[in-house]
Amino acid sequence: MKHQPVEGFSKLSKQGKIDWIVNEYLEGNDEYQKILKQYWNENPELQKLHEEFSENTVSNFYMPYGIAPNFLIDGKLLALPMAVEESSVVAAASKSAKFWLDKGGFKTTIINTTKLGHTHFIFEVEPHRLKHFFNFELKKKLLQQTEAITANMRKRGGGILDVELVDKTSELSNYYQLKASFDTVDSMGANFINSCLEQFGKTLKQEIETSAAFTEEEKASLQVVMNILSNFTPDCIVRAEVSCRIEDLKDDSGISPEEFAWKFKQAVTIAEIEPYRATTHNKGIMNGVDAVVIATGNDFRATEACAHAYAAKDGQYRSLTHCTTENGVFRFWIDLPISVGVVGGLTNLHPLVRFSLALLGKPSAQELMSILAVSGLAQNFAALRSLVTTGIQKGHMKMHLFNILNQFGATEEEKQYFVQYFKDKTVSHHEVISELERLRASKI
Ligand code: MEV
What we know:
Layout: H1 14-25, H2 30-37, H3 44-51, E1 65-73, E2 76-83, H4 89-101, E3 107-110, E4 115-122, H5 127-144, H6 147-155, E5 159-167, E6 175-183, H7 190-209, H8 216-221, E7 223-230, E8 237-245, H9 257-273, H10 275-295, H11 300-311, E9 321-326, E10 329-337, H12 351-359, H13 365-387, H14 393-407, H15 412-421, H16 429-443
Antiparallel strand pairs: 1-2, 3-8, 4-6, 4-7, 5-6, 8-10, 9-10
Helix pairs in contact: 4-13, 5-7, 9-10, 10-11, 10-13, 14-15
The site of (R)-mevalonate (MEV) has 8 residues, from helix 10.
């Protein structure tokens, strides 16, 4: 069936929107109305709150919210909230946390916290003249004219750290940037940064138009293309690390600590030099990072984009984690660029986000950076530990077992049976289904 475009969809009531999509795309089947409505929260205020986070909302999309306990981070014992749909992620985090608990836990260091944004503009003028104008006239005006926007942030200890003029004309004709650095304290700061940059764009235009330093023709060539923060924050870095004596790397798979350390280090080195492996390796790290980013109401698209840009910063995509095995000591660490907030955004609005932050002891943004880096490192440790010993499928398919059983409407009794059945066997989709058929047939 060919579908018709819709006018004014956003203005329809929630029921109107559902009726339209079900009639237009789902043959008016009531079953689909029910699916959407069964996820509505029975508390109308809570439902409305969620609907208002976004646009054209017709239902809620649940994500499991789990807890990974026993994380010793800089001497504090924390339970991490993780919102993630992939089986094994929370289990892997918990396993790593426990492994490092009696080895001193995780240590973190905030390397820096600077965020960046740019006003991108085109101006047909010699670079040295623009530079002179920037240094002697424009820069102080940019700072003065953002004073009202930055007042509150300055009170909290942050604000604009610096503004530079960047000459990009060798890469694109007449292209320049105002590159600004910011300290946004406990907020992620997207709105603050973008407001400052939009004011920069206006000030730039106004100051050039009224300046005697440029000809009318030059002035007419000025185009402010856009003002926007950068999600690449290579100067907003946290390091998380673990270390222990190699002889303490005891694994229940039977591998010796020395062989474990050697294989583990090889696995990290492979991800440092081989982009195909680095992509999967870093994906695994982000399993841990994103789950906590989402649970704490932060923007996982931003953290993903930043992590991958950083992984490719020297021209080749590489591992975000590193490992050494020197003088009998195993050391494993991550340098994670990450910009997150604990005020603003969803942090005060979403009840579960408030819960997550309370569970974490109301961390500062820097403390949250540390927790996120630890979550990524722990996840990577668990993945590599499985990969270099038993292989990933053993644990993975055990967790996946419940997904397969749920798909076939297994009862609690059947689930218990299968947990026992696969205790010492590798789970496979085929084996689950044929055993389920056999079990059910034997009961008839
Ligand atoms: C799966 O989501 C993540 C892993 O593939 C990560 C890795 O291979 O390191 C297990």
